[in-house]
Amino acid sequence: MPARKIIIDTDPGQDDAVAILLALASPEEIDVLGITAVAGNVPLSLTQKNARIVCELAGKPDTKVFAGCDAPIARKLVTAEHVHGKTGLDGPTLPDPEMELTDGHAVDFIIDTLRAEPEGTVTLCPLGPLTNIATALTKAPDIASRIQEIVLMGGAYFEVGNITPTAEFNIYVDPEAAKIVFACGAPITVMPLDVTHKALVTKPRNDAFRALGTPVGVAVAEMTDFFERFDKEKYGSQGAPLHDPCVTAYLIKPELFTGRHINVEIETCSDLTLGMTVADWWRVSGREPNATFMGDIDADGFFDLLTERLARL
Ligand code: RIB
Ligand code: CA
């Protein structure tokens, strides 16, 4: 089976960093054509820098990294320094990147790549607000039918919101973008909080990262040590939810996840529920299914895979 060609669209973010590391550690299954940075957890100036820091941490300085949109389509940017820290990668002390940004805008890279590669052979993996993806779809509607699959982290149903009572951060930051993406017609697989809140970095799991004894293992343990305090305080959980690595783990071992093919719509009008993913889990709306919405994960299998792959870097 040839490696799957993907573009990772990301707003690093400690959990984005682990998702990128997992992808770069798995060349048999994943061919990272490029990484596109978007404003989200922290402003674009930091997410594009953090993406390069992570590529160098993985020992892959030749990875193409592009800067994308610095603000949502129609709203002011909301960031999450309260979760990820001022730099977006608080925790480990990592050197500034030496690798340069690749010339060109992220949106044009997404469009050009989908047009250049054979139809249905490129998967988009958004790990942050969907601004870059939606902007590409608006600028070049022809690419929608060329996308193999969109596998994204975002949304919630049973878990409801983490940034408001009803909305998950990635969708909340740019709900107009999310509406465009969920209506584009490409196959969509969603890793919502319903799954990621079951992928908790408990102490034994974080100890296993640290016990790798490598710069990557120690850095991931230190990222998690920082990143977990928000969720432990808020939810009283046993550790940080590793949201974004669920996307790349799905590409390697989809059997770790179970979900339903249902209709998912995005709230873009109500101030009260802005950014809510209205997931028709019980299929009561009669609306056409447009996404595979994951509901469960084999968490032990996920962490075994993650630890084994991080050990390779
Ligand atoms: O709500 C969690 C999501 O928001 C994750 O992708 C995290 O990195 C932030 O972007
Ligand atoms: Ca993210």
The CATH topology is what?
Inosine-uridine Nucleoside N-ribohydrolase, Chain A
> Mind describing the biggest β-sheet?
8 strands, mixed
Structural class: alpha/beta
Output mean pLDDT: 97
Keywords: Glycosidase, Hydrolase
Protein name: Purine nucleosidase
InterPro entries: I/U_nuclsd_hydro_CS, Inosine/uridine_hydrolase_dom, IUNH, Ribo_hydro-like
GO molecular function: purine nucleosidase activity; uridine nucleosidase activity
Describe this structure in words.
This protein is α/β, with parallel strands linked by helices. It has a single domain (4-310), classed as Inosine-uridine Nucleoside N-ribohydrolase, Chain A (Alpha-Beta Complex). The protein is built from twelve helices and twelve strands. It has helices at residues 14-24, 44-57, 81-84, 106-116, 131-139, 169-173, 175-182, 193-196, 203-211, 215-235, 245-252, 299-310; strands spanning 4-10, 30-37, 65-67, 122-126, 147-153, 188-191, 200-201, 240-241, 257-262, 264-266, 277-279, 291-297. The strands form three sheets. Strands 3-2-1-4-5-6-12-9 form an eight-stranded mixed beta sheet, sandwiched between helices. It has a two-stranded antiparallel sheet with strand order 7-8. Strand 4 (122-126), helix 5 (131-139) and strand 5 form a beta-alpha-beta unit. The longest helix is centred in the last third of the chain and has 21 residues, at 215-235. It is globular and about 50 Å long. The mean pLDDT is 97. Bound molecules: alpha-D-ribofuranose and calcium ion (CA). Alpha-D-ribofuranose binds next to helix 1 and helix 6. One of its GO terms (biological process) is purine nucleoside catabolic process. It comes from Thalassococcus halodurans. Keywords: Glycosidase, Hydrolase. Residues 6-304 form the Inosine/uridine-preferring nucleoside hydrolase domain. One of its GO terms (molecular function) is uridine nucleosidase activity.
